[in-house]
Amino acid sequence: MYRMRDIARKGLTPPVLLLLCLLINIWARWPILMHIDEVFTISWRVCTALVTGGISLVLSLTGLVTLISNQTTLNALHPERTSMLVTRGCFRFSRNPVYLGFIGLHIALALLLSSVIGLMITPFLILLLSILHIQVEEAGMLQLFGRQWEEYCNNTPRWFSLASLYAVIKGRAK
């Protein structure tokens, strides 16, 4: 079981998973893309897609910049190369802000293209990211950081919660 997961992890890195899901979105809605002007007709769907996409892009980029500025690895295939536990910035309200941003970008494109198939495969993207990458990364973090990692997990959700965002905002107000 683990050998199969290791093989899949190498080929299906998080950016590759995102790209595959985005391509499925585009493929599922290819006929509508021939009339691109209809895709961008201003509506609640387009506005929601653009806001979701914008927030998601900022979240992913902020997470990547935070990791880079802390001189730790960006390579999901090698969690053992992590040099420090990053808990500041967007990592205060999500343990996986980059992946959360990837999922948001996928959802934004599905909304923009009115792709029901795109929305339907979202749980599979989440499941694949969780099984192939997050579980392995979190096991590596536990090995590297022990009790510090456990405390971080107890205080920070894997994906996102309004309570964690509220706690961050409330903490800033003090």
Model description:
The protein contains ten helices and no strands. Helix content is 72%, strand content 0%. The protein is mainly alpha-helical and 174 residues long. The protein is globular. The chain has a single domain, classed as Four Helix Bundle (Hemerythrin (Met), subunit A) (Up-down Bundle). Helix 2 (14-28) runs parallel beside helix 6 and helix 6 (97-112) packs antiparallel against helix 8. The chain has helices spanning 2-11, 14-28, 30-33, 36-39, 44-69, 97-112, 116-120, 122-145, 147-155, 162-173.
Supply database-style keywords.
0% strand; single chain; 174 residues; Four Helix Bundle (Hemerythrin (Met), subunit A); mainly alpha; 10 helices
Task: Describe the SSE topology.
Elements: H1 2-11, H2 14-28, H3 30-33, H4 36-39, H5 44-69, H6 97-112, H7 116-120, H8 122-145, H9 147-155, H10 162-173
Helix pairs in contact: 2-6, 2-8, 5-6, 6-8, 8-9
Note the overall shape.
Answer: globular
Biggest beta-sheet profile: none
Radius of gyration: 18 Å
Number of helices: 10
Main location: membrane
Pfam families: PEMT
Keywords: Membrane, Methyltransferase, Transferase, Transmembrane, Transmembrane helix
Subcellular location: Endomembrane system
